[in-house]
Amino acid sequence: MQGELERAIAVVSGAPAKVIGAGRTDAGVHATGQVISFRSATELDGAVLSRGVNALLPADIAVYGVVPVADPFHARYSATGRTYEYRILNAPERDPLERLREHWLPGALDADALSRAAERIVGRRDFGAFAAGPGGVREVRRAGWRREGTRLVFEIEADAFLRGMVRAIVGTMIRIGRGKLRPEELDAIVASRDRSKAGPSAPANGLCLVNVEYGEYGERRNEVSDGDGDDE
Predict the structure, then answer these.
(1) φ/ψ (deg, to 5) at 177
(2) Which of 26, 60, 228, 230 is catalytic?
(3) Quick check: 126 and 136 in contact, CB under 8 A?
(4) 12-60 pLDDT, tens digit each
(5) Among 52, 53, 178, 221, whose CB has the most other CB atoms within 10 angstroms?
């Protein structure tokens, strides 16, 4: 995504541009709420720049808007919060048209147990047990599951996320939904800060970055959509 955006912006603005994203995403992860920042001396307004860039981007990337921001703004370091969503199709048959956007699980899942598990990860603590790399303290502001027909959707908001954190949390919760773990066991898993104590990571295709917040800069949502992605 970064390379394609830099190429398109350079062509339209007439000068090279270094793109900075609000977050990285593993291959297969999506982003409908990704935000990027770049410096440019162009005199083109946001609407013209946006149309020009979109005309040059591949089909799986689209810019939804371009706005000027104050000099200190940084898409990644100025962010005060991020929200991810994970979609599970919990049905006997898969949906071929949505296969790239959701994880198909045909077996029964206990929605009540999933909801009780989500409540237990809210708070500020070291989430190293769910990290694909070094651990660290993060504040999970809210987390919960909702049902949309045959789909179960997990939404989680935090000040920031460790690499692989959301997929590892969902993978662990799937074990809870299948009755292999009790929701209360999440407390010990988090306290251990040991990745081997948690469940396997859920597949990348169900995960999507849906929102980024910027505090004093206001919320910047859905400015760039990325159909591939690189880690949460």
Answers:
(1) -65, -25
(2) 26
(3) yes
(4) 999 999 999 998 777 789 999 999 999 999 999 999 999 999 999 999 9
(5) 53
